[in-house]
Amino acid sequence: MSILARGVEDDPNNYTRFLVLHDGPIPKPTGRDKTSIIFSIRHVPGALYRALEPFALRDINLTRMESRPSRGRPWEYTSTWTSRDTWRTGMSPRRLKSL
Q1: Percent helix / strand / coil, the chain, rounded to 5
Q2: Assigned domain for 17 exists
Q3: Cα–Cα dist 99/93, whole Å
Q4: In terms of residue numbers, what domain contains 44?
Q5: What is the CATH number of the domain that holds 83?
Q6: Which residues contact 67 (CB under 8 A, 6 or more apart)?
Q7: Is residue 7 included in any domain, yes or no?
Q8: pLDDT of the chain along its 99 residues, tens only?
Q9: Long-range CB contacts (< 8 A, 24+ apart) of 91-97?
Q10: What span, in angstroms and rounded, lies between the C-alpha atoms of 35 and 49?
Q11: 66, 18 in Cβ contact below 8 A?
Q12: Is the pTM value of this prediction over 0.85?
């Protein structure tokens, strides 16, 4: 995949994430690969613990966790969690489905 333009952001600390879909052979890991998942957590006791536990039990290292209020749903949050694990090293579709 070619980079079309560099330095187009207006903030040097701004990072944009992209999702690439293709039906060809799966590319080799680059060593900089990451997997991010986005999901909602209800505002009830123990919800965060129950969301984190499957990652710990599967030795998946979360490197970044962000939560933001969900629009139009008071006391519910949308979370984005990122891991350096990829589909080859622990974040396979089968494992993600079980989370």
Answers
A1: 15, 20, 60
A2: no
A3: 10
A4: 35-98
A5: 3.30.70.260
A6: 41, 77, 78, 79, 80
A7: no
A8: 677 777 777 767 666 666 666 677 777 778 888 888 888 877 889 988 988 898 888 888 899 999 888 877 787 888 888 888 776 666 666 666 766
A9: 91/35, 91/60, 95/58, 95/60, 96/37
A10: 21
A11: no
A12: no
Query: Is 68 inside a domain boundary?
Result: yes
Which sequence positions are flagged as catalytic?
16, 18
**Is-contact 18 4, C-beta < 8 A?**
no
| Residue 73 tokens, joined | 């749903």
Q: Name the one residue in this structure whose structure tokens are 């060593």.
A: 31
Alpha-carbon span 82 to 36, nearest angstrom: 4
Domains in the chain, number: 1
Question: What CA–CA distance (Å, rounded) separates 23 from 32?
Answer: 21
Token pair listed for 93: 């579709």
